[in-house]
Amino acid sequence: MAASPRELLERGVVTAEQGRVAEGLALIREACARDPSDAEALAQLARWLSLMHRGQEATAAAEGALALAPRASSTLDTIGVVFSRAGRHEQAEACFERASSSEPGQAGFHFNRAASLKFLGRFEEAEAAYEACLRCDPRFWRAHSALANTRRQTPGRNHVARLEQLLRTEGIDPDAELHLRHALARELEDLGREEESFAHLAAGNARKHAALGYDFERDRSLFEAVMRLFPDPLPPQDRPSAADAPIFVVGLPRTGTTLVERIVSSHSQVASAGESQNFGVLLKRACRTRSPRVLDEATLARSLDVDLAALGRDYVESTRPPGPKMRFVDKMPLNFFYLGHIARALPAASLVVLRRHPLDTGLSMFRQLFATGFSYYDYARDLRDLGRYYAMFDGLIAHWRRVLPGRIHEVHYEALVADQAGETQRLLEHCDLPWDDQCLAFERNAAAVATASAVQVRQPIHAGSVGRWRRYAAQLQPLVDELRAAGIEIPG
What we know:
Blueprint: H1 5-17, H2 21-34, H3 39-51, H4 55-67, H5 73-85, H6 89-102, H7 107-119, H8 123-136, H9 141-148, H10 160-167, H11 174-190, H12 194-212, H13 216-229, E1 247-250, H14 257-265, E2 270-272, H15 278-287, H16 297-302, H17 308-319, E3 327-330, H18 339-345, E4 350-355, H19 358-367, H20 383-403, E5 408-412, H21 413-418, H22 420-430, H23 477-485
Parallel strand pairs: 1-3, 1-4, 2-3, 4-5
């Protein structure tokens, strides 16, 4: 007897979750074909397409599922997650709101809605949704760290006592402790208790770092492999018109990449593609390497054998946001590894690199709770590894300056804060964009922000984060030692 559409769907989901994603996806597609009215099947198709970084197909499937007017809250939540991954946070929030209203006891639905509300700049509603999540499940650890970053805490309104009590929970795992300690660190810093704040950061990061078994040599090999691919300056070529060329904003995390993206995407001719992984994913797909990571030595070794011009066309087609604007900005920080590939694939693209004081960079990354499942930032949980990584990054950018003469525009965060208009003018000139006053009022940009800077970039530019490292000079000595050993200049 032939399997029913529901049986095909269930088998497809199980198969995909076991790691045989292509096989599972084929079964889910067959279930959709057998019963086109099944919203859950279409939502699962959208989910797995999204996880495979096939964004346009995923979004189309999610829209189809939503058009079937699903009632199941789990289906609405799945559709919302796909929209969120695609940067369509207003649609995502609407799905999450329906899901959480339908099943108010499900903590995860409230958490997902809170994240979308935060990305949309609706911070009071986000705070209420995070609290609703925690009422359902006080051990939904991610909600504690997210809540602490939703607003500035005050002596009369904070969560320190609750967090300290939860930290005493017997047998909590490294991830739970990491979320609680990062939440405490943020709230205690807001309250002026900086020594206690850093102690929590150090303890949480140290336990997670030990659990990961991170080896810096893995990352060193990536830097060295990239530089070997492009040993000499690329031959000069006529730059095509930038009328529809993408703008790449790259750099270490927490150095101002989101700020610059907001400035550029406030321009009347530029849309935002957010923090897209598309370039790296398309390169990986073209290389056909079987290794599990998108960026690794095996993929880099084959990367110059692919048709980079075709890859560039595919990237633009799959990444440009819908709408009339032909230019768009992609602010995936890790694209700094691919600048040589991008220059060859997209000769008209504008390349912008963010720089920041090395100690402020290291401190800000050490303070940031990166997604625990995203291994490319594992180095950020140890000050010595941060110092080594910064030195390799600094060397790679110097390499790109030599290999790509005239192509890279470096923006120093401190200079941008000190002279917003002048630095913005130079930035726009590099991107072949005319002046637009809206770029100086980026905080009025209503578009969603799905990064750790979601709160900060809704405020006018300020110098509050410049020189923050001085508050923690003693605690940062391991970082200082590594930077000096690598010959990195540390401004006073």
